[in-house]
Amino acid sequence: MKKALFSIFIGLAASLANAGDFVNHINNKAQDIPQTHVQIINFWAAWCKPCRKEMPDMSKWYTQIGKKQKVGMVGIAIDSPENVSQFLKQVPVKYPILRYTGTNSRAMMSQFGNQIGGLPYTVIRAPKCAYEEKIVGELTFDRLNQAVQKAQSSCSK
Q: Where is the secretion signal located (predicted)?
């Protein structure tokens, strides 16, 4: 019962936040969070120093491991299109970048479990087996890898 309620909550939170509030940064078209077995959803902003520091490691992890394992990874920028573009020219990343276009980023992030509104904030989840880990603060290549392995192993039981 707990697992079913958790799955319903995760689906509801994702659908509420996905209702037109995210756009692909490249083409400005509405886009939902990719639905994959394991998902990494990273909330960030160009003005956030720990965000800027973690993104090269996250991009490296995605190209070396994530793509091969078909892990869905997306960065959600809580920032202006101009700031995001300028940052991505300096620090290109290999995973999709979406921008939040709604009017209440704190409420949107709380739907993903970020009650304090801090950045960077990452959710690693496996919706089909009701697994979710929330991480506030900077991630490293190794920390991200450990978190994804934990999600994968918890779902293979």
A: 1-19
Other C-beta atoms within 10 Å of 31: how many? 18
pTM recorded for the entire structure: 0.86
**What is the DSSP code (8-state) at residue 63?**
I
Q: Which of 115, 149, 141 is nearest to 43 (CA)?
A: 115
In the chain, the domains with their CATH numbers are: 2-155 (3.40.30.10)
Q: What is the DSSP letter of 33?
A: P
Asked if 63 and 57 touch (Cβ cutoff 8 Å), the reply is no
Q: What helix, strand, coil percent values describe the chain, rounded to 5? A: 45, 20, 35
Instruction: Find the angle CA(19)-CA(20)-CA(24) to the nearest 5 degrees.
Output: 130
| Residues facing residue 121 across a β-bridge | 43, 136
pLDDT in tens, 46-87: 999 999 999 999 999 999 999 999 999 999 999 999 999 999
